[in-house]
Amino acid sequence: MTVAELVEGGPLAGARMYGAGRDPVRQVRIVDELAVFGTVAPHTAVVLIGAAAAGGWAVEMAVRRAWEQAAACVIAPSGGLDEGSGEALAERLGVTLVFVDEDPLVTAVHVASAASRPEAARTQLVARCATRLAGDRPSVRRVLGVLNAELPGTSVAFLDPYGDHLAGRRATGRGRDGWTVEVDVADADGATLGKLVAGGSSRSPGWPAVVRTVLELALAPLAAWAATERLRAWQDFTVQEALAERLLTLPPEPAHHGPVSRQAAPHQVASRQVPPHEVARQEAAREEVAREVAAREVAAREVAAREEVAREEVAVREPGIREGVSHDPASHDPGSHDLASHEAASHGAASREAGLPRGAGLPGRRGGTSSPTPREEPSGAEEGAYEQVTDEVRAAAAALGWAVRGPLTAYLVRPAGGRPDAVRARALIAAALGPVPVVRRGEGWAGWSGVSPDELAVRLRRCVESTPWPCAAGAGAPVGGLGAAEESLLGAEAAAFVAGPGTVARADRMGPAELLGAIPADALRAPASVVLRPLLAVDRDGTLLRTLAAVLDEGGALKAAERLGVHRNTVTTRIERIRAAGFDLEDAATRLALQLACRVLLP
Amino acid sequence: MSRLIGPAELDLLAAGARLLATGASESSSALVRDWAASVIGAGVELVAAGELDPGTWCAAVTLVGSTTALSEQLPRGDEPARAVRALEGRLGRRAGAVVALNLAAENALMPLVAAAALDVPVVDGDGTGRVFPLVEQSTYTLGGVSAVPLAIAGASGELAVLETAPDRVEELLRPVVLAMGGWGVAACYPMEAGELARVLVPGTVSRLLEAGEKGAPREVAAPFGVRTLCRGRILAVEGSSGHGGELAMPSLPSSIVVQELEGLRRLVRLEAHNEIVLALADGAVVARAPDQICMIACGDGLVVDVDKAEPGLEVEVMTVTAAPVWHTEAGLALGGLRAFGIRL
């Protein structure tokens, strides 16, 4: 047992220690007068009583004598010495000085028992750790808190499988005599969650083994924590996904805002009439209202989990809301907004009958989860109930900080290799993009954001750079509102498809060249050769293929002749030979396939 | 070989007496110097104890109580003479010489005032070689001379003669001094010159005259040697304990922590009880009573009183070695650490 162990986790718990306390304690000596020091052996904990603790001068002299005798530490009753001066001398001489509040004789007995049977003291430590770790509701924070509090002179950190710090105290600089203990943490299925890394500079032999034992005690709570977190995250995303899909299928809000849409009014005022510098202030007020309304409405729901999620999301993502609206110049353009509203209105009218029941049924389709299913009512039938549902969905989205109106831009993040962890991917996307919905779409994850396309592209870049596996991302063209979100989503999907790993492509910046550039030439080369085999069989020098490409690219024999530098009739003759090989150039599908094949085969 | 202490020598003696003395306040020093100057006339004779007829009856004269009180309640001027006369009356003998109990600041001059009034010589020497807080802490006591009977005269004409067991002098004297207004002049240790020559620390007055010369090194004032413990800055002044509760000292124990400014930069703790009695450097004893430990301010070269010490002050800590008799067993018992309640 070192002095530090005694103080931080042992019989001296709560005492004030000055000095490093690295010396092992082998025995205890009670000293009532300084003359006794002559017989104090090294590694002794000296407990001062009586005259030897009578005043600051006596304690100072004892510290000095302890230094001369290489004692492990001096334990003095508090109050004898101004602790500041004591600390200065202890530091100067490198002697550990401990002040205790209880009777020094009682202290001496405890220290003696711990020093004579260090194993017993360590067993006590392990038992105490086990009890504390087994407490209710495991969380990584609690577990690491317990480990760092109970293991004296030891830093414990939890690192993820990629080596990034997740929780706990980072190990301080490891000195020459430092040590580390690493324990892998696995989840219930045996997959690696990360590892616990403990380090310290204690020279006490056997201490790292104790640390390992305690770290191993922490494995079960950590696995339980991971399982709970995953379940919660999965539920969160399930809930959010359902909500996002419902939003996409909602009819647009009316162009003229009545009392029905409660949160909408302040926002409209902000975006239409108030100059930009006023917006930020009003935004704060609007958020207040939105949060209140959302909280009230969400609370009314019967699923408590949902409520918790929504509040947390609001708390975390507030800044995003502000940024999303006030920084976007498009949101102050009444023209585009109106247009979008009208568009959306007509779209909504069409989808009202068919769309809503489908939307309402969506979460149900995922049956079996504990996701909060909106009340199952025939919402299409009654206008009031229908509006209520609409409001609820919008409120929930607002509570999550999502853009539910105004110009928005869709995005899609697509994995480009590796085996992405869905929960983590969604968490990373949400972290990089701010408060946005994250919905599974094909292989990737999609959603929309209220920030400008420029800002969104920046955030997407941050996102694809932060994922531990390669990802590509695309941003759609900005659209006027939720009603047109699908259109933007398609653009984002295409753009993401075009983008290479680790890059971001934007649909609004994408032309035919970008699309063609995205054609997977390698994959298509073999099928192209098959398609063109009849032609290639007769085309010894590639003339026919080049002519075919020129005709298709230029859209006619005349221009093709100019490009190829031959007479028009030559081109016509060659076209005849191509037809003879079995290709019907009048057929649009054939034409497209051939053009694609030419592009793949020709350098 | 007698010499005369005239006005010029008086100034030298006053200056020399302050070099290592604690507890001296500027105003009371000036007051006593002026008092002495006004009464010595052409001068007072300074004689060695051996030069006197061994049967000459002598008394020690000393100021008791607080010098601050002295500067607030001015003397009538006849206090030393009244005290000696009272002792003469009590014992039925006529004083042939007076001697100092100690030579710290005002106390070095008080015998001059008495000698001038009584027209007797002053003996070159004193009863401590330094200053101690208690009347009975003297080489006279160590030599077997009793401090009593003791006569004390106050500024309002009061006079008291004490006869007690030798170890109860302080107990009786202190309330009397308080009642007199905080200070008085005492005549005590009545003895014959032959005995005085045996028990006093000789030649100390001459030494202070020498040390009072401008440019004379401070060491001259210390007959048995002086050494510098350290130069440092006061870090803290703390209350202290562990000095033995039964001890009746005029002031409370305190502890001064000094950080050495050069060399090893040791942490020096000065344990004070009325005066500094113990010096620890990094917890090791470097000086202790009966040697005198004092702080000299680096700024003005004046002695820093224990109760004037404050953090930030730069001081030189010095030890003045006490007379050899203080290092005998009896001397240590009377003026050593144990006398101040510290059992080491």
TrEMBL record, chain A:
Spans through the membrane: none
InterPro entries with a match to the protein in the record: CdaR-like_regulators, CdaR_GGDEF, PucR_C-HTH_dom, PucR_C-HTH_sf
One Pfam family matching this protein: GGDEF_2
Residue stretches making up the CdaR GGDEF-like domain: 389-496
Domain PucR C-terminal helix-turn-helix: 544-600
Coiled-coil portions: none
Biased composition (Low complexity): 346-360
Region ranges (Disordered): 251-286, 302-386
Biased composition (Basic and acidic residues): 302-345
Domain of life: Bacteria
Family annotation (PANTHER family): CARBOHYDRATE DIACID REGULATOR, DNA-BINDING TRANSCRIPTIONAL ACTIVATOR ADER
Protein family per UniProt: Belongs to the CdaR family.
Name of protein: Helix-turn-helix domain-containing protein
From TrEMBL, chain B:
Residues in S-Me-THD N-terminal domain copies: 9-163
TM segment ranges: none
Domain of life: Bacteria
Cited InterPro entries: S-Me-THD-like_C, S-Me-THD_C_sf, S-Me-THD_N, S-Me-THD_N_sf
Matches recorded under Pfam families: S-Me-THD_C (PF20906), S-Me-THD_N (PF06032)
S-Me-THD-like C-terminal domain residues: 167-342
Protein name listed in UniProt: DUF917 domain-containing protein
Organism: Nonomuraea rhodomycinica
Source species taxonomy: Bacteria, Bacillati, Actinomycetota, Actinomycetes, Streptosporangiales
